[in-house]
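haha ok so turns out i had the wrong file open the whole time. this is the CORRECT one, sorry everyone. sequence first:
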Amino acid sequence: MKAVIQRVKRASVSIENQVYSRIDNGLLILLGFMDDDSMNDIEWMVNKILNMRIFGDTEGKMNFSILDTNGSLLVVSQFTLYASTRKGNRPSFINAAKPDLAIPLYDKFINYCKEVANLNVQTGSFGADMKVELLNDGPVTIIIDSKVKE
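then structure:
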């Protein structure tokens, strides 16, 4: 599982020119899955994201987590995180989990976030043509991969 985490002042997802979900002050999480991802990957990833100290304290140092700031999460599926550009100019997405596997993993990720944290958790719509808008705070953007634990 791969995630791109962006600290945001605000973020939203629109579908067919209608706002589907929106958050203020929190994390936009773009999330991609592989066929062999499991609940272990989800638990590791959620705990890493929730406890990552990337929010400023009173001195502006990154000492607070999303849990400390009581911020919000916007979780958006993005299979293109597993793009392979090794051959040619058109990316291959063969490493990305197919929807029959990815949708349950996406739902489990969202449910686990809600289960372990008392935060506002918003989502995109799996497989939809989404327009994601954000105001990156910092900017702070971090990429995490559950397979390499980094």
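Helices lie at 39-51, 66-69, 99-116.
again sry for the mixup
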